[in-house]
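A reminder from the course coordinator: this example appears on the midterm review sheet, so study it carefully.

Given structure:
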């Protein structure tokens, strides 16, 4: 699909999502609706102008725009999921816009849609009749095609673990975003929801950490703060698991990591997004974020969800073990365990993510090398060891070249000390249609004669090879 069409398609899904939400709050005569309707009309009519007519259709768990699958972006995920669930619940599988529409038609369409009974299998023909009775011929609605063996179309029971992990990951990004926006506008921020998501993440990490760890390779440039918080949380949880933390402590650690930078919500955008190095004054402001984070957390209504261990973790996540870093302390104090864990996760994620002032980040292995050099001074050496054993000497997401001249992406490190250099890889390969093939190979596999057919020669920089690592983990 060409990028303009894909952009319009994503836009359409977002607009329909907002519109459905809004129409559940306001009645159809409310003036607040006008602006949203206008914005949606722009997108719909732009698509009609371009495509003549268009169909938005659900096939299994995806939307297809005029027969081509829409790929969602990180920021679009919530909208996709919402629209998909809402349509499926009402057994609506396809909407076709045949001619340009105006405000009245779109309003009628949306309100008829939200008023359909959930679970009503005859909704689509019913909808069609209702549209006709209002003289609307430019929109056609078709029923959901239920795939065989998938009787209960709108339950998500059959998702495998990867799907669940994906959902938790994107949902957490969405929620942390919401919490921060609410804090900024002094609205009620739902910390309990964060806790629930952290609990689910703890579950996933306990079962199979490599799936969530793989998600950390999704480095979304625009959504840095939210994406970063979730990644730091995943790394912290995986470390906590190694250290034998209880589920309860893990959940506390997960939430601490999610909100570790929440103080940044009170730092001006110009400083946060400055494309160059900060001057002294700006640094002064930036260094206040741990303390502001503590203040923010203590001001939350659901303070019951927060305990002192978490508050301290937020406070000292930038204090180094030699007490350099910030905030400046006047008396010697040990950095808390949560603080030390978050610090390692934080530095690693920051170094391996492209930022506005550093577009080519460090490769995973470069980042680990730098952290190792700074151990004793900046990091807890023991915790760093745990972290390295976790991501492996070839960390998850590293691009490697093999003796067979194939390229591979590290998918799962090998934790057996004898085989640290033999992780499981996904081979970088495409099928006849140019689609990414996901062939998984375990480098400890031997041939009949006991030889290893594949070995890693060295790591490569994915940016030089224009390889989007995250694609292989989704
Ligand atoms: Fe921070
Ligand atoms: Fe951070």
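Designed residues:
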């Amino acid at each position: 699909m060409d990028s303009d069409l894909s952009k319009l398609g994503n836009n359409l899904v977002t607009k329909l999502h907002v519109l459905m939400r809004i129409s559940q709050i306001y009645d159809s005569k409310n003036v607040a609706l006008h602006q949203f309707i206008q914005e949606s009309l722009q997108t719909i009519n732009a698509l009609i102008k371009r495509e003549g007519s268009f169909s938005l259709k659900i096939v299994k768990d995806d939307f297809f725009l005029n027969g081509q699958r829409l790929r969602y972006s990180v920021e679009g995920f919530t909208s996709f999921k919402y629209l998909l669930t809402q349509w499926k619940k009402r057994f609506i599988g396809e909407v076709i816009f045949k001619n340009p529409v105006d405000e009245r038609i779109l309003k009628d369409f949306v309100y008829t849609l939200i008023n359909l009974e959930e679970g009503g299998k005859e909704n689509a023909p019913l909808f069609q009749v209702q549209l006709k009775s209002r003289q609307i011929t430019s929109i056609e609605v078709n029923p959901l095609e239920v795939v065989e063996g998938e009787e209960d179309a709108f339950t998500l029971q059959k998702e495998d673990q990867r799907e669940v992990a994906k959902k938790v990951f994107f949902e957490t990004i969405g929620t942390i975003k919401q919490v921060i926006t609410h804090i900024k506008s002094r609205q009620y921020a739902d910390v309990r929801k964060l806790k629930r998501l952290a609990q689910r993440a703890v579950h996933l990490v306990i079962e199979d950490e490599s799936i969530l760890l793989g998600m950390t390779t999704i480095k979304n440039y625009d959504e840095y703060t939210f994406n970063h918080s979730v990644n730091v949380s995943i790394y912290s949880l995986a470390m906590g698991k190694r250290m034998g933390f209880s589920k309860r402590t893990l959940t506390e650690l997960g939430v601490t990591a999610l909100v570790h930078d929440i103080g940044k919500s009170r730092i001006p955008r110009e400083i946060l997004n400055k494309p160059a190095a900060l001057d002294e004054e700006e640094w002064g402001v930036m260094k206040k974020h741990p303390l502001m984070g503590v203040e923010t957390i203590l001001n939350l209504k659901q303070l019951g969800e927060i305990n002192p261990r978490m508050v301290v973790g937020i406070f000292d996540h930038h204090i180094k073990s030699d007490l350099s870093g910030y905030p400046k302390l006047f008396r010697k104090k040990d950095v808390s365990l949560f603080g030390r864990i978050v610090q390692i996760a934080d530095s690693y994620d920051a170094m391996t993510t492209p930022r506005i002032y550093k577009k080519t980040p460090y490769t995973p292995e470069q980042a680990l090398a730098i952290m190792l050099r700074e151990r004793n001074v900046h990091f807890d050496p023991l915790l760093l060891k745990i972290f390295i054993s976790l991501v492996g000497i070839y960390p998850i997401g590293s691009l490697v070249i093999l003796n067979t001249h194939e390229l591979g992406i590290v998918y799962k490190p090998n934790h057996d000390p004898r085989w640290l250099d033999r992780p499981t890889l996904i081979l970088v390969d495409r099928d006849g249609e140019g689609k990414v093939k996901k062939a998984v190979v375990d480098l400890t596999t031997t041939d009949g004669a006991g030889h290893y057919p594949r070995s890693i020669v060295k790591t490569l920089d994915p940016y030089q090879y224009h390889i989007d690592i995250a694609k292989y983990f989704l």
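The first strand starts at residue 54 and ends at 59. The chain is about 45% helix and 10% strand.
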